[in-house]
Every structure is written in C-alpha cells, then in structure tokens.
Amino acid sequence: MISSRILLAGLFCLCPFSLAQKIEPDPKHTLIIISTSDIHGNLDKFPKLATLVKKYRSKFPHVLLMDSGDYFMGNPFVDDWEKPGLPITILMNKLGYDAATIGNHDMDYGQTALRDHIKGMPGTKFVVTNLSPSPPLENCFLPYASIPIKGTPISVGVIGLVDMQTTDILKMDGITWKLPNETDYKGVMDRFRLHHNTINVILSHMGYDHDLKMMKYSPNIDVILGGHTHVMLPKGHLRTGSLLSHTGHKLSYAGVTKIIFSTDKKPAVLSKSTEAVSLDHLPDDPEVKEIVRQFTSNPFFNQQVAIAKEEITHVTIGRYFCKAIQKAANADIAIYNRGGVRAKTHLSKGPVTIKDVYEMEPFRETVVTCKMTKADIEQLILTKFMAPMEKEGGMLEVYCAGFSYQIMDGINPSITSTLRDGVIYTVAMGDYLCNNFNFPQQGEGCAVGKSVRQALISYLMQLKELVNPPPTQLPIIRKTTFSL
Fold this sequence. Notes:
Blueprint: H1 19-22, E1 30-36, H2 46-59, E2 63-67, H3 76-79, H4 86-95, E3 99-100, H5 111-119, E4 125-126, E5 131-132, E6 145-148, E7 155-162, E8 176-177, H6 182-186, H7 188-195, E9 199-205, H8 208-217, E10 223-226, E11 237-239, E12 242-245, E13 253-262, E14 268-278, H9 286-295, E15 304-308, E16 312-313, H10 314-329, E17 333-337, E18 346-347, E19 350-353, H11 354-360, E20 366-372, H12 374-385, E21 398-401, E22 405-408, E23 414-417, E24 425-430, H13 431-436, E25 446-451, H14 452-463, E26 465-466, E27 476-478, E28 481-482
Parallel strand pairs: 1-2, 2-3, 3-4, 7-9, 9-10, 10-12, 15-26, 17-24, 22-27
Antiparallel strand pairs: 1-13, 5-8, 6-7, 11-12, 13-14, 15-19, 16-18, 17-21, 20-24, 20-25, 22-23, 27-28
Helix pairs in contact: 10-14
C-alpha cells in the first residue's frame, strides 16, 4: 500500500459507457471478468466471494476470475500459518483463479514462499511483464498470457504490471524490474497486437495515478484491472477507449466487468462496463466458510493485551510503536516508518488482542539500533518527506519517541527538532526502515534480539489502558495549513 487515503474517485467518472446500457447481453456473447485486488490475507470474505463467482458461472458460460496482486500480508491467520500464505493459496485454488499478477507485498514472506504459492496454483497464469525473476522464481511468471474463450474465436490477452518500489530491498535479491514510463506505456498496445487477441486486459499493481497515465499514453486498452493504492471506483472510469476498474482492498468489493462481443465476420468488442460489487450482503458459501473456519480457529490470537478506552488514532499507534522499541532497545530515541504501522485509520475502542497487534505489525520486523547524530536523523526524516510521490513523499513518514520535530514545507522544505548538536544518539528502529530508508547508516543496524511485535505486546501490557494523548504541535507546517 502506498497511501492510506481511500479515494471514491468513481463518483466523478468522466465518460459513462452508454452503449452498454442499450445492448441486452446475450450470455453466449458476454465475457464476465470477476476481479479482486489487495486482498491482504482477508479470509473472512472468501465465502461471499465464492457465492458471487458461483452465481455468475451458473448464468454465463464465459467467466474469468483474476487478481491484481497483494493477496498476502495483513492477517495473522495467513501471515503466521505454519507455512505463511498457505490459506490464501488453498482458497484461491478453491475458487479457481484464471490469471493473477503479483503485488509489492507478495514478496514479504520471501521469494521461496511466493514460488510455492505460484507452484501451488497450477491452474492460474501468473503474469508479470515488467520484472525479470531471480533463480528461485524462474518459470513462475509469464510476460504475457493468452486465454481462449471456449466455443468462440475470442481470446483474452493479459499483461501484468507491478510497482515494487516499497518492497523490502532484502527480499528483492536477484530480481530486476522497471517502473514503466511514457514510452513503455505507448508500447503496450504494440505488445497486444503481436498476439492478435480480441480482448486485451492489464492486471495492474501500479496504483491509480499510474493507471491514469497508462490510459493517457496507451489508449484503447479494453480493460485495466487496477490495485495497489486501495482506490474504489463504483462504476469504473472509461477514458480514451480504456475501461479502468479499482475495487478497494480486503475484499470489501469485487469487480464485475461485462464485455459484450460479436463473432460475426471479424470478432470484436461491442460494449464494456464494470462495477464494484459489495460482498457484505451476499450469503456465505458453506463449503468455503468451513475451510475459513479451520484456518481461523487458533485461540492464541484472542488473548487480550490491553484495552482501548477510546478509538486510538494512527498517530498514537505510531507513537506506541516508537516507545515500545525504544524501551526494548534501551535506546535514547526511536523512529518508525508510517507505512510499517498497518492499522487502518484507528484502533477500535475495546479489547486489544494479539491478533490486533499482529495485524498492526504483520511484517515480523526486528528491532535494531543505529548510532546517529542530530544531522543524520533530520536528514533521514527530511529526505523521506521530499521523496517523489511514487515513493510516498510529501507527508509525515516518520513517527518518533524521545524527541519532536517540525517540517516547514515549501519550495525548499526545512526541518527543526529538539535534538542536540554534538550528541551521538542510540536510535531504535525496525529493520525495514534501517535497510530501505536513505541515510548515512543505512543497512548498519545492530540487532537487539527482540521483534517489534514482542516489544509492542510488552509495552501495551504495561500500559493496560490505551488513550490518545492531548494534541501536540503538528510536525508539518504548510504556510497557514496544518496537516499530518
């Protein structure tokens, strides 16, 4: 996930596909694509997704099920299974996915785990076009896939694109990839033309903004099934002849794209439309529900570690992370990356369980320390703030404990802090920040022998009751506008 903001951008769809409303679909000449993205290990909605898939397969002879990546990471019942990710592999197999690409978090368990997931789904075509695999992942990905529609002259071409910028550098050993640029996007249709497919589909884990660029520079892509930024488009976007679908995250919605085609003379697409279908109102498929129950019955995760007396904000949770690792490492101060705190917008009022902690920290990070000066620390924070938007710059990226800082935004952003010159600080942090952020001590962290989860559980048990502290001076000043 690049950003925590949820965009209901589909409310402003610029070009409704009116033709789709005028043509009464003939099931024999209709392709249904059911799409998911950014499942993040959410097992609970699979029984409802199974119901949706069965419904369309019973009514239409041509139904494809596709995913745009990030099926892993975000649910301890999946992340901490004896073989991480296996519950998702089994459930995706059960539903019968036809094609998928990968997301940046699908590498979080390591390359071997991803390989096992792919090999465990022999009926699914995994398509990744802008990535060259390492030896462990050889023969796992197709740069292009062609799926024939049985009983028709129609075939579907599939390209997969992924943004791996935020993937832990230690998980990318031997892998090379390229973030597509304008020239690459302009060449997309050329690649499709080489294979002479009737319907062209891109599985994109590039994010909403990149998908819009793709539509601009490579018009007339039939369908782009997007993900990565957790955007939800109720009716999709149709621009430059390309139909874009985004369905949010964690299976709150699934995409249903209808493509009506003709087989007279030269096969052709007559119309296309898409909608994000809420899964909440659908009944559970009993067989899939029982499979999920078997994966989610471990009582260990129900143990209470604290109680939230009110809804706890993301900023407060970030401070808890910092104070927990500062205490665990006996450090002078602590810093933690915002993206590593995987709470939604808040922690709900009520009991806080081990499951909650594991969901907030699904990456199994370890606590490390670095020796840093005031200049080193301020450089780290400001460099991340000033990063291009593709790398999540321009917002509060670093939570802290033991000191405070302010950023004055503008043409040349500057930073001030309560840190002192001439002092060498022992700074606690997670190993992801240490290995992936740009600062002089990058990759030189000293392990303290404790996990972030252990530190957080111990700290929350000590607090017992969780509340939000009084508002403090905000760390980012944008002229007269204050923002976190």
